[in-house]
Design goal:
The chain is α/β, with parallel strands linked by helices. The chain has six helices and ten strands. Strand 8, helix 6 and strand 9 form a beta-alpha-beta unit. It is globular and about 55 Å long. It starts with 8 loop residues before the first strand and ends in a 7-residue tail after the last strand.
Length: 189
């Protein structure tokens, strides 16, 4: 009887805020349309599913239009077939000695963890685009369940625990084929 080859399926979980740090450092955008082919070619994957997580500013809190950000989410979802998880940044008022200040929080760690666990039977390799040490528990759990876990981040934004706790670490800055057009900063009004 012929053995059936098990599919090599990769699920990629992208923490947009972590990737943004690498984008600012390299001063170029990631070409998300190249991601699936990169993983098919370099990890011999039959199936690649990509999840993208981001928190966006509340309308009226910026001096620029947010339509471009929402069009980007639509491009990822409808144009590239990504699963997009997004939420509005939470605004928290802090009263200090210098008066009131507003901080914004948009952590997506729980959403990433839920998707990684919920889909665990669908993949044998998990790729996490984050350097956050909070993900070490997830990495350990997945590895204990027989999954391979790879971390993609940048050397100045990766925790030692996550880097050494995974099956492998890749510095995004060194993967030239993923980088696209130059990052241009908005002109301040």
């Amino acid at each position: 009887m012929e053995k059936i080859k098990k599919n090599n399926s990769i699920y990629i979980f992208i923490d947009a805020s972590n990737v943004w740090n690498a984008v600012k450092s390299v001063r170029r955008f990631i070409e998300y349309k190249k991601l699936k082919n990169y993983f098919r070619d370099n990890f011999n994957a039959d199936n690649v599913e990509i999840f993208y997580y981001d928190a966006y500013p509340k309308v009226g809190t910026r001096d620029y239009d947010l339509d471009g950000k929402h069009k980007f989410y639509t491009y990822l979802k409808k144009g590239l077939g990504f699963t997009v998880r997004k939420k509005e940044l939470k605004r928290i008022s802090i009263i200090g000695n210098d008066g009131e200040s507003i901080i914004e929080k948009g952590n997506m760690d729980v959403e990433i963890t839920i998707d990684a666990l919920h889909n665990m039977n669908e993949y044998n390799i998990a790729v996490l685009f984050s350097g956050d040490a909070d993900f070490l528990a997830l990495v350990n759990y997945l590895r204990n369940c027989g999954k391979k876990v790879y971390i993609f981040s940048s050397k100045d934004n990766i925790s030692h625990e996550l880097k050494t706790g995974s099956n492998g670490y890749f510095d995004l800055k060194n993967i030239n084929e993923l980088w696209g057009k130059d990052l241009k900063y908005r002109i301040k009004k």
